[in-house]
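Last lecture ended with a question: if I hand you only a sequence, what can you say about the shape of the protein? Today we answer it with a concrete record. The protein is Putative glutamine transport system permease protein GlnP. Below, first the input exactly as provided, then the predicted structure, then a couple of comments.
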Amino acid sequence: MESTSSLLQKQQKRSYYMWVVVFFLVIFTCLGSLYYCTLKIDYTWRWYRVPQYFFFNEEIEVRTDVAGSVEAIEETTDGTIIRINSDDGDSVDYAYPSKDVRLYEGDTVFEGDVLGSYREWRMGILLQGLWLTLKVSFIAIIFGIFLGLGAGLARISSNPAFKWLSITYIELVRGSPLLVQIFIWYFVLGTLVNTMLAQYGVSQIPPLWFGVASLATFTGAYVAEIVRSGIQSIHKGQTEASRSLGMTYTQSMYHVILPQAFIRIIPPLAGQFISLIKDSSLLGIIAIRELTKATREVVTTSLQPFELWFVCAILYLVLTFALSMLLQYLEKRMIHS
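The predicted structure:
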């Protein structure tokens, strides 16, 4: 009996390792095929040029905005201070963190002349786009949760006004593409709101916030249905038991129903939030430089579509995988607590 069991375990282990080898063979075959195809079209891979789109060392020039003569050049622990005596008789100081001075005392300078330069590390366009994607997604998720929670509770309310308004909102948003909703928020609502603000002398709302609003309302409709299904999955006896203990409907929902429903809705919420991060790539059409638009701009200037689109996909994968792991961790904590 033991020999038969050990033989079966060896066969299972052998089969497992065989399929692991098959997996890696498939992966390497796909990568090799892609590389072979690029050789056929004479494409040159330039992965070494990708890091500069995350961080780059930029040379910054300090220019004078007055005409006059150099009165003094002082070196400090932080760099250099150049004092310009302008033609109007005023003295203007220019400070920069470097000792690379291209002038001498007494030299004549004109407006726009370079006084010196220094190098500084700057955030690249891909990193800027990644940060903006994170910022937009995080804000939209927060507003989407509150909007979806309110709409989900209204969806199961006995109040006909709340219920019908919630149904109307959910069906309208879920029944139209997100791209169309972004256009409506930016070109229709955005134009109306900013025109009215301009008439009253109020500063206009940037396109970023109309993009956030479109993502939040779109996500809120799906979160509302997730919340509704989660609440209705809890047995009615839970509500009846809590009401029999003297709780109001609000207390019963807050203390009894929602904590149990929240554990059940975490997996679908994770999927919705992951979709939101990917859907944020549509905001590039309203001049928001998120990750996809930033990648598109870099591809246009560098002519490196293969490397940069692969990097873009990997960055989205990192974001969505990290969010998925976080929500799984929260789910486990709530189950065991």
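Comments.
1. The CA atoms of residues 154 and 279 lie 26 Å apart.
2. DSSP finds nine helices and six strands in the chain.
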